[in-house]
Each structure stands twice: as structure tokens, then as C-alpha cells.
Amino acid sequence: MTDHAVRHGPPVVELAGVTKEYPGGVTALRGVDLTVLSGELLAIVGPSGSGKSTLLHVVGTLDRPTSGRVAIAGHDVAALSDRALSALRSRHVGFVFQSFHLVPGLSARANVAEGLLYSGLPRAERGRRAERALARVGLGDRMDHRPHELSGGQKQRVAIARAVAGEPDLLLADEPTGALDTASGRSVMELLHELNEDGATIAVITHDQEIAAALPRRVRIRDGEVVADARNPEAGAAGTEAG
Ligand SMILES: Nc1ncnc2c1ncn2[C@@H]1O[C@H](COP(=O)(O)OP(=O)(O)OP(=O)(O)O)[C@@H](O)[C@H]1O
Ligand SMILES: [Mg+2]
After folding, report:
1. CA 20 to 30 Å from 170, out of 59, 122, 194, 205?
2. Which Pfam families match (predicted)?
């Protein structure tokens, strides 16, 4: 058994022949095949307009494909009603966006706890988990700060805490460092590396070549197609198998 197979678990994401056509005639994805195994940390790279965010939306079940198969944590998306799909999403997927998407008037704790609203957990337990997640991302001393009282890097840490508080099978990040200065961006990437070492499966869209090069796997998209998929023995602890 290869080291790669030992380190990684079963598929969390399985895409086969996925296409996405937007109304108005844009074909944003053309026959994408992509498997992400539990425990992987991968970069999704490619030029502007190549379909990266579309891919992330389809993988995160925010959007359904026009054709092809999408399975998340073994669940076939096509078989699910919209309601069942949002339940699947809230249980299995966490999202992080370039612009943080925090609720302005709420404390860091309340923002993170909000991400657990549909978990079925009682309010007090949601609060405790939010505090644990904030401590995990290094913001134990900023629980009561509201977004405008936090730096950009701290806001992104709150967003990451919110995304991981429910222990999703998959963390999806669309340009998480895009709005940050170099130092804050680096520390956000370090956090993602740490979460991956603790077992999180993470896909990160990035324009930053340096960030991409430091990740164990890079999937390159061009014109809606996967044109390269490389594993990097040197990057991170995982991924010692080529292809
Ligand atoms: N909701 C939509 N309706 C119609 N066309 C869309 C929609 N969203 C994206 N597109 C088109 O689909 C293509 C892929 O867009 P997408 O946002 O996935 O690109 P991207 O790789 O994330 O680009 P960027 O790096 O600029 O964020 C683009 O040509 C875009 O114009
Ligand atoms: Mg995009």
C-alpha cells in the first residue's frame, strides 16, 4: 500500500463527467472528473473565469450540475431534494469566502455559533463549541469582538472557526487570502495546514502561486476543464504518490 493510500481515507468528493451550463449559454464546467479523499489538502488554480468558483459551488452542493454525477461523503446529490441537500450541506460542508461573510452586529462567538444553528444542538452547547472553535483558531481572547473590531486576518479566522465548528467532512475555501495582506494570508494558510494535519479535508481556490505550490495537491482548471492534477511530495506532510 502506498503512503498516499495509508494517509488518506475514503472519497469525500466524487465528480464524474460534471458539466455546468449557466442560463445565457456559458458553459462553466465541461466534463470534470475529480475525486478528493478524506484528509487531502488541495489547491484549485486557474485563470479568472476558468470555472473555479463554479466547481466549488457544485462540490459544495450550493449548485447542482447540468449533467454528470456528484457525490459528497458517499451521498449522490442528484437523488436528493433541495431540502435534503441543504441538510447534507450543513452536516458535511464548511465554506470560507474571500470577503469573510460574517454577520456585522454579532460577536465572534455568536457568528461561529450561528454556523451551528441547524445542527440540532442546544443553544448552550452551540456556544461552547463556538468558543472551542475560536480557541482553536487562536482567537480565545477575541470572543466578544464584533467583526469591525477585528483585523482582516482575524475576521478570516472567525470565518474558518465557523466553517469547522460543526466538524464538516469537507472545508471549501474560495480565495481565503484574497483580501488579506501577505502576513495575515500566510497565517491563515498556516491555520489551514494545521487543521489538515488534524484530519480536515480542505480544498482552497487560490490565485497565489506560492500558496498553491505549498499545498500537497494542485488541480488546474482551464476553460471549465481539469488540465492538470499534481501531487507534491515536498509540500505538507501528505501526498507522496505522483498523480
Ligand atoms: N451565475 C452565473 N450566471 C452566468 N454565468 C456565470 C455565473 N457565474 C459564473 N458565470 C460564468 O462562468 C464562468 C466561470 O466563472 P467562475 O466564477 O466559476 O470563474 P472563476 O474561475 O472562479 O474566476 P475568478 O478567478 O475570476 O473568480 C465565467 O465565464 C463566468 O462569467
Ligand atoms: Mg472565482
Report:
1. 122
2. ABC_tran
